[in-house]
Amino acid sequence: MPASTPPFSFGRLPTFRVVACATATALSLAFAAAATAQPASKSASPNAAQSEAKDGYVPDVGQDGKDVIWVPTPQSLVDKMLDMAKVTPEDRLMDLGSGDGRTVITAAQRGLTAQGIEYNPDLVELSRRNAQRAGVADRATFVAADLFQTGSVPG
């Protein structure tokens, strides 16, 4: 996002259309992902390539987060959610608990300006690298923040 663009503020959210994946949604998606997961090595998984970082950090499915565990949303479900929301390039997307960034990156690939908010700083850095590799780092940004703290989300 350009430097002149102000940070997202929870107080301003009603002023524009936002698609947000809140904790409750993330948990339901986690159960869906777990139910559809097939036992396989990380390298055999179609989503593993998107999640792997060049510096060696690879998140573990089910790793502890703050009050939740991390389970990646299958790409087919990300696509379906964005289709159901009927997002357009004029929309903005904010993903709360963005994990490895796949929802934000997919939205940016569709032309949206999108921001991911994630508690785990390692996942934030991984998401930034994934966005860079996908060629959408100008439209997909990620912030390390604690959603349980009140106030505006930084930049």
UniProtKB/TrEMBL annotation:
Domain of life: Bacteria
Residues making up the signal peptide according to the UniProt record: 1-37
GO molecular function, one term: protein-lysine N-methyltransferase activity
One GO term of the biological process aspect: methylation
UniProt KW S-adenosyl-L-methionine keyword: yes
Residue segments, region Disordered: 40-64
UniProt domain Methyltransferase: residue ranges: 90-149
CDD domains for the chain: AdoMet_MTases (cd02440)
Keyword DNA-binding in annotation: no
Biased composition (Basic and acidic residues): 52-64
Pfam families: Methyltransf_31
Keyword line: Methyltransferase, S-adenosyl-L-methionine, Signal, Transferase
Protein name: Methyltransferase domain-containing protein
Organism: Achromobacter piechaudii ATCC 43553
